[in-house]
Structure to design on (388 residues):
């Protein structure tokens, strides 16, 4: 009897535990996981096409990685223009602290290396503990000695040397390249890096630096270039006169004025009249940043090899290739060609075929009608002779 009671008690206890476990599982299954909130920060103004290319690629790839419901906030720091102004930076810090004190982002992504030092300083105070991805081509000096915990510098490598070596392959008559770059602090660093690389170029290729002069003077000089020369547009944020520019708009103005082809260093310059070339790809950088973001959001460990990336490609404008008589066969394998305007036949093939068939049918009907008319007349003449 006693054993029965013990067995019954144990059975009741087991059923109770099973019931509680079921309730907990049901609660866990019914609970909704909050989608991540991501703060996208940009070093400069919204008018930079590079940011749109980066953002579109980032959101698309992150969605494909399983985060389609992620929410986003955006901040444009305008660092190139105002980053040295302490009043501005103090106001920016206060604004960001107020905006994100209650709803802290789960992840921050900064597009643009120029503002990296700001996030390394004030950013650690404002967004303490929040993981930060910083993308850019000029991050090596920023993170040379120390990378804080939760910071992931995604360094986009780009070598202008490769871009310049490509040009004579596409246009064998080119012996001189005019190199255009602005006067911002980052651009000065880029120029020094490029000049060091260019020492490895063939001595038959002359590099002329259009640097240290107002941009209108560059435009004036570009109108009368030699037949064996081209222009390589690296960037233009600030010219020697202190005037600020959106690089894509400066590139477009240069392409309109220059009497020779203009090559570029970024995919954000495409569609402005530049030939293209070996470019730093904001699109690819956005994809790589999204892949890294997915790892961070999922809690996966991130290795050093995953925060360095190759984000360059061979990219060309089909209209400019045609204008400057650059053959498609000379492009490197794997090149992407944009703005390839289809021929009239490709665009209106159905309409053309339909029109030709209709005209042919009408011609056949008319021919049949005329032939029938001639035969009838001949038959009438034959009958008239017989009657006579």
């Amino acid at each position: 009897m006693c054993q029965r009671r013990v067995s019954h008690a144990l059975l009741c206890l087991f059923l109770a535990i099973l019931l509680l476990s079921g309730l907990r599982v049901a609660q866990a299954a019914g609970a909704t996981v909050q989608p991540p909130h991501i703060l996208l920060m940009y070093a400069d103004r919204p008018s930079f096409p590079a940011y749109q290319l980066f953002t579109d690629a980032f959101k698309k790839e992150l969605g494909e990685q399983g985060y389609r419901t992620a929410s986003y906030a955006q901040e444009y720091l305008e660092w190139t223009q105002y980053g040295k102004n302490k009043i501005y930076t103090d106001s920016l810090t206060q604004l960001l602290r107020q905006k994100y004190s209650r709803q802290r982002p789960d992840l921050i992504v900064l597009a643009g290396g120029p503002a990296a030092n700001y996030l390394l300083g004030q950013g650690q105070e404002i967004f303490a503990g929040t993981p930060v991805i910083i993308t850019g081509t000029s991050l090596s000096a920023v993170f040379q000695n120390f990378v804080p915990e939760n910071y992931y510098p995604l360094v986009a490598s780009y070598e202008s040397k490769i871009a310049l070596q490509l040009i004579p392959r596409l246009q064998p008559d080119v012996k001189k390249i005019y190199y255009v770059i602005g006067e911002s602090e980052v651009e000065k660093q880029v120029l020094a890096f490029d000049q060091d690389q260019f020492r490895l170029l063939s001595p038959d290729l002359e590099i002329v630096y259009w640097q240290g002069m107002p941009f209108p003077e560059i435009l004036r000089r570009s109108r009368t270039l030699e037949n064996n020369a081209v222009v390589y547009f690296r960037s233009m944020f600030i010219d020697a006169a202190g005037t600020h520019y959106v690089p894509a708009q400066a590139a477009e103005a240069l392409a309109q004025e220059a009497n020779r082809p203009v090559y570029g260093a970024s995919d954000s310059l495409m569609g402005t009249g530049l030939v293209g070339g070996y470019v730093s790809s904001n699109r690819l950088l956005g994809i790589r940043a999204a892949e890294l973001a997915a790892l961070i959001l999922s809690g996966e460990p991130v290795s050093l090899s995953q925060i360095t990336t190759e984000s360059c490609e061979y990219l060309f404008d089909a209209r400019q290739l045609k204008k400057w008589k650059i053959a498609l066969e000379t492009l490197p394998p794997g090149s992407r060609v944009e703005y390839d305007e289809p021929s009239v036949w490709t665009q209106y093939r159905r309409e053309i075929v339909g029109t030709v068939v209709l005209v042919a049918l009408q011609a056949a009907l008319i021919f049949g009608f005329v032939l029938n008319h001639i035969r009838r007349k001949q038959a009438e003449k034959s009958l008239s002779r017989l009657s006579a």
